[in-house]
Amino acid sequence: MQYQVQTPDEYIKAIPEERQPIMRALRKVIKDNLPKGFSEEINYGMIGYVIPHSLYPDGYHCDPKLPLPFMNIASQKNFIAIYHSGIYADQELMNWFVNEYPKHVKTKLDMGKSCIRFKKIDQIPLKLIGELASKMTAQEWIFLYESRIKKK
Fold first, then answer.
1. What is the tens place of the pLDDT at every residue in 66-124?
2. Which DSSP letter does residue 105 get?
3. Is residue 59 a contact partner of residue 65, using CB atoms and an 8 Å limit?
């Protein structure tokens, strides 16, 4: 779901009350582990972690007015979602995450191309999400992103 908010704090206040603590925890673990160079903002109606135009002036190729997206967290209708562009673009990172996930959570991994869905909010592996957030620097993401869009 998209919320009409301007800041991450407003986003958390707008979501259902029972999801606010886990979204605060996700936000904290991501911010504590994300390498320098990423900015937190509302991106696509979710809490987003992006490469700002000051670091990557070209912006997102789909809409250059937008900063380059990297990671988002969202409270969707039936689940909490973590969107991670690096997992989508880097098979090695994807393999690492898929292999690590069962070491942290007993439930089956529910994942799309870049979306990790958690229907049970008490089973979100915060430590693993923090590790995932730390795995790619802003410069590595820019390099990988550019290499992927040039192939198209």
1. 999 999 999 999 999 999 999 999 999 999 999 999 999 998 999 998 899 999 999 99
2. -
3. yes
CB atoms within 10 A of CB 97: 21
Written as six digits, the tokens of 66 are 């937008």
Q: Under 8 Å CB-to-CB from 23, ≥6 apart: which residues?
A: 11, 12, 15, 47, 73, 75, 80
Residue in 3, 84, 72 with CA at minimum distance from that of residue 39: 72
The domain 8-151 having CATH identifier 2.60.40.10: the answer here is no
Residue corresponding to tokens 């562009």: 85
Q: Where are the domains of the chain?
A: 8-151
Cα→Cα distances 105→56, 90, 121, 122, Å: 36, 23, 12, 10
